[in-house]
Amino acid sequence: MKRVICIVLCVLLLLLFGCQPTPEEEYVVNKGDDKAGEAIEATAAPSEPIVQPVFPMHWEDDIKTDLAEVVINADIVAPDLETYPVYLVGRHSFTREEVVRVANAFFTDMTGVQKGDGMTREEYEAALKSITDKELEEETRLLQMEYLQEEMNRCSATEEGFVDRPELSVSDIPGGPSSRLIIRQADGRSGNLWFSYSELAMGKSSISPVQPKSWIDDGGYIGEKDAVIEASITIEQAISEAEAFFEKIGAEGFELAESEEARYFNMYDLSVMSMGWQLQYTRSFGYCPVNASAHAVSEQKIAASSDVSFSRSWNIEWIDIYVSEYGVEYFNWHNPLNDLGVANENVKLMDFEDLSGIIKRYFSAKFGDPDAFVCGYNSIDKMTLTVLPTSKKDSQDAYMMPVWICEIGLYFSLDAENPYSGFMQPGRHELQNKETIAFNAIDGAIVIVPRSQ
């Protein structure tokens, strides 16, 4: 049954690939005032040199409420900068010309194109045979064969729409808010190209999602027990290949935020097609790059219970890329931005002593709220100075706002009958989850990121 669930998850991933739901509700914007924006504008041309604070390398402290404890044992990670600039950005929509440029760099052995998604009839027949021959649980086999037969019937009706050509042209790209194309390649595989105004994604195989090692270690999204990932290339080779591809397509200003061993996985017969590295790059504008998922936790409800002001951010711009011994096999570019220049060459950041006081007040409210769901033991493990695109007041543009990303560990109790309550001795707890929250580095306001990320 677990395999059935994994298969269904794989199918859903491909069906939903490229979709980013809008937030379920509106977030409060600029609660209180717009101190950060005012500071950026007021000090854009300072009359005297700005003296920046010196940040500690480590922060140790403790917060206790009637309900929980927060142990602060955090490394402080800040960029090696003499000045802290703020850049102005606007939203960018991918053009058809950009889609063509990236796709032709990615699909280097293209032989044809067809509107739609899925595979060719020949590929569906080969997948059906593979499932018939492979040793699978009967329930899994029947589910997969039924799905493949339906997909083959659906896609074969449009097979005559395939056009032979060695590369894409602008005329191949449909208009509208989003589209999908099947790209036939010289090795017989059908790759897929998905794009919208805010996302551009492509894979060398339409049946192969990328599985990072952490997903497998967590017991999800796998096709067999005790799966092992051993990348076929070194991390240095993967980075070199990825950054050469960025240069080829004109993707500038991206820095490596995270790397993880991963595999390209056939969701039909559960075979591994390649093993390599999944890399994530973000645009951090000279500040510290941080994984895109680190910005995604919404704190709206709990933030409203504290006296800390907060505002809304846009989603950041980032690229996921999978590289194996066969080169770049998967690419996904999210939330492109237009650079609009420098709003302030050296904005004054908040002293860390003042910032730490705001953080402690916030977490005292968060973990002291009797109506909130909290764990009894928590830890602040790391603080990283990066940037988030934060809306400029009365404008459609945004500042790349300096923010501190605070990483929090939430723990089960191993001592109490209720694992979510009670103080614990060190070592008598187990990590349940990790969360992050962003604090504006200029005024200490909480920066809320849309759920869609």
Contiguous helical run count: 9
- Kindly state the percentage of residues in helix: 10-25%
Structural class: alpha+beta
Number of strands: 19
Order of helices and strands: HHEEEHEHHEEEEEHHEEHEEEEHEEEE
Pick out the low-confidence regions. 1-32
Distance between the termini: 30 Å
| Gross morphology | globular
Side by side, the strands of the main sheet go: 5-4-6-7-8-14-13-11-10-9
What is the strand content? 25-35%
Query: Largest beta sheet, briefly?
Result: 10 strands, antiparallel
Oligomer: single chain
Question: Radius of gyration, rounded?
Answer: 24 Å
What's the overall average pLDDT, rounded? 78
How would you explain this protein's 3D organization?
23% of the residues lie in helices and 33% in strands. The protein has 453 residues and is of the alpha+beta class. The chain has a ten-stranded antiparallel β-sheet. Strands 1, 2, 3, 12, 15, 16, 17, 18 and 19 form a nine-stranded mixed β-sheet that branches. Strand 7 and strand 8 form a beta hairpin. Helix 4 packs antiparallel against helix 5. The N terminus is likely disordered.
What labels would you give this structure?
globular, 453 residues, alpha+beta, single chain, nine-stranded mixed β-sheet, 9 helices, 19 strands
What is the element layout, followed by pairings?
Elements: H1 2-16, H2 35-42, E1 58-64, E2 69-77, E3 86-91, H3 96-106, E4 110-115, H4 121-133, H5 138-156, E5 163-164, E6 178-185, E7 190-196, E8 199-203, E9 210-212, H6 213-217, H7 235-249, E10 254-265, E11 272-283, H8 300-303, E12 310-312, E13 318-324, E14 327-334, E15 337-344, H9 352-366, E16 377-391, E17 398-413, E18 429-440, E19 446-448
Parallel strand pairs: 2-16, 12-19
Antiparallel strand pairs: 1-2, 3-15, 3-17, 4-5, 4-6, 6-7, 7-8, 8-14, 9-10, 10-11, 11-13, 13-14, 16-17, 17-18, 18-19
Helix pairs in contact: 4-5
